[in-house]
Amino acid sequence: MGFATGDRQRLLALDGLRAYAAIAVIFYHGILHFDEGLIQRALFKTFWEVTATDQWPKLWLSIFNGTAAVELFFLLSGCVLIRSLSDIGNPWRAGASFAVKRVFRIYPGLIACVLAAALLQAWPISWSEACANMALWSYAVIQPSWTLQVEMLAVPLMLLAGVFTLRWGMWGTLAVLVYTCIARKNPELLGVQLLSDYGYLFIFGALVPSGLGAFAAKLARPIGWALLLVAFLLLRQFVHGLELLTAALGFVLLALLYHDDRVASSPVLVSPLPAFLGRVSFGLYLWNVLFLNALHNVPPSWLPSDAVLAGILVSLVIIPPSVFLAAVSYRLIELPGIALGRKLSRAIVKGAPRLEAA
Q: Would the pTM count as exceeding 0.90?
């Protein structure tokens, strides 16, 4: 299906945000690579709880907030996927169509990256481990690929959201959101722990194109997207238990980018560099792991002793080759996979009615 110019601009702005999130994850993992103890000492504690010596790395882990970046990925997926859901008139054909598109979007690039990592890894990797990671049964080779496992687990959930949206509009989507929020404390409602932990983020994202998203954008205009982003990143660093509030802030942030043409035209988001990085962000998120793992072969004396400085320095070094591999993967592997997925999807649901996100 085609998009109007305004729709393309909105999606371009969301892609720009995705690019920054992918870059943030690289710095985040780079810092933690040099001091894994920060996971226990600082990562999941508030600023009030960490020691004075850990305040500095805590600050940088809050700026390059990998947790917030992953949440943004899921929110963005919910927003984009609810737009692309079509052919809901027949749920069986719709489910097959949607699943096929997701499989061919995610697996080709993932498989190529896992194969490369298995061949080049600094330590031996069994083919059973590699195959399990390719299938997303595990993520022992490319550890960040656990988020792709969540993306695939969310396929039936997004299909359900699409059916409810078609049937009852925004209220149907809200009903699914309530269900997923309850499932956070009752995992049996969704059956899989990872989906119970993160499924509500996809549904928050699915609300972005709705009338509620437009209303939230109207209220958020005086605040501005930059301040919303800061609050989304930092609020949880001062108070525990704000997951739903920060998810709501992420929803408002995306709604503002989606519905406000002025914000969606911000050069910070849609200039050529973030636009390009947004297009290749899927591969960038995966391929940097190869270079990060290669650090095991680098003598410690070559790098600063401070984990923050070493992590930032190394991240700056590995980003350019990671972008190159991501661009090659996008052009030669991901785009053909996307095209094939769309072709197969159209064959499955040819002639079925189209879903419009309410």
A: yes
